[in-house]
Amino acid sequence: MEVKKVGVVGCGFMGAGIVQVCAQSGYEVVVVEKTREALVNGLATVEHYLNRDVEKGRSSLADKDSVLARIVGSIDQGDLKDRDLVIEVVPEDMGLKKMIFTELDRLCPGHTILCSNTSCLSVTELAESTGRPGKIMGTHFLSPVPPSRLLEIVRADTTDDETLAIVKEFGRSLGKEILVARDTPGFVFNYLLIALIGAAVRLLENGVASVEDIDKSWTLGMGHSIGPLALADFNGLDVGYMVARAMSDRSGDPGLAPSALLKEMVESGRLGRKSGEGFYKYREAE
Ligand SMILES: NC(=O)c1ccc[n+]([C@@H]2O[C@H](COP(=O)([O-])OP(=O)(O)OC[C@H]3O[C@@H](n4cnc5c(N)ncnc54)[C@H](O)[C@@H]3O)[C@@H](O)[C@H]2O)c1
After folding, report:
1. Neighbours of 226 (CB within 10 A)
2. Which atom of ligand 1 is nearest to the CA of 14?
3. For residue 284, what pLDDT is reported?
4. Best label site of 91, 198, 230, 233, fewest CB within 10 Å?
5. What is the band of 251 on the pLDDT scale with cuts at 50, 70, 90?
6. Which residue puts its alpha carbon closest to atom 25 of ligand 1?
7. Are 90 and 11 in contact (CB under 8 A)?
8. Considering the domain 189-273, what is its CATH architecture?
9. Does the C-beta of 133 come closer than 6 Å to ligand 1?
10. How far is the CA of 12 from the centre of ligand 1 (A)?
11. What whole-number distance in Å separates Cα of residue 214 and Cα of residue 271?
């Protein structure tokens, strides 16, 4: 099966980026949001980034217009009924994702592949909520989606070989390098990231070094452009907390659980860059 028509459910932070790269790669995309307002905002985000590409000389006005012409927005999931591949990009809530998968399974023809952008939930559990467990995969895009070179694809215990091959090819057609992970807590990317950030927070909690010095060990010592605590601030401490909590609940490994310091920061509203304060202070919420 060749993927031609793509569907996306959810046009928030990640969904807008996924819609953009799919349309830029030549796919016809139908994107479905929950409300008209969320749809207008999501499509405006896509257009904003396309305009920026034009301003920076990375594409022409004609390119932008042809990309936008390939995107159709809707608030009716029924409009996904003729899609070859649908990517679910709604918030990280198993109940909500299962509801969407069950509905997509009912609406879409038998050949349609259903993917989830989940960061850490079980793709196998999602697959089992449908009548097509062989055609379900995780497509974990990283943020920001358009420039990110990597796409982590997650094979549920039930995913068949043909689906894996089609999704790999689809990811490559978006210009991404593919990483294939088994369906385990945090897959590869978040398992490594949460372990690194968790260790950095424990060093701080135990008074081993200052925020700046912990980050310096990674930037100067390893040559990375950002340290783990600055990265945690960038991603949002609430997001890191939620992913670590879900990974430890799912694996039963208390070593993955978020530390008391992270919990306290999230509960007091220090969420990183977006709230103006996390491990660092920011001039204004970004
Ligand atoms: N934010 C990140 O850095 C990041 C990175 C990788 C993966 N993810 C994963 O991507 C998914 C989405 O995250 P996000 O940051 O884009 O969230 P978000 O809150 O920015 O966007 C989610 C969107 O889904 C929409 N939505 C909710 N219910 C819906 C429904 N029933 N039908 C259609 N649309 C609906 C919301 O209106 C919202 O616009 C999550 O599973 C998250 O774990 C996020």
Report:
1. 13
2. 16
3. 65
4. 91
5. confident
6. 10
7. no
8. Orthogonal Bundle (1.10)
9. no
10. 5
11. 19
H/E stretch holding 150: strand 150-155
Name the DSSP class of 233: H
Which of 14, 120, 190, 235 to mutate to test ligand 1, by most ligand atoms within 8 A of the CB atom? Answer: 14
- Alpha-carbon torsion (68, 28, 103, 133), positive or negative: negative
* Amino acid of residue 255: G
Separation CA 218–CA 112 (nearest Å): 43
d(CA 272, CA 223): 23
Q: How far is CA 111 from CA 17, 144, 282, in A?
A: 25, 30, 48
Q: Is 247 in the pocket of ligand 1 (CB under 6 A)?
A: no
- Exposed / middle / buried, residue 285 (Cβ in 10 Å: 0-12, 13-18, 19+): exposed
| pTM listed for this prediction | 0.93
Residue among 205, 189, 216 at smallest CA distance from 262: 205
SS3 call for 74: strand
Judged against a pLDDT cut of 60, whether residue 286 lies above it is answered with no
Which letter does DSSP use for residue 68 in this model?
Answer: H
Record the tokens describing residue 82, joined without a space.
Answer: 């003729």
Instruction: Tokens for 20, please give them.
Output: 């953009």
Domain 5-182, CATH class in plain words: alpha beta
CA distance 105 to 144: 29
Domain limits of the chain?
5-182, 189-273
Instruction: Give me the helices (H) in 123-270, please.
Output: 123-127, 161-173, 189-205, 211-222, 228-235, 237-251, 260-267
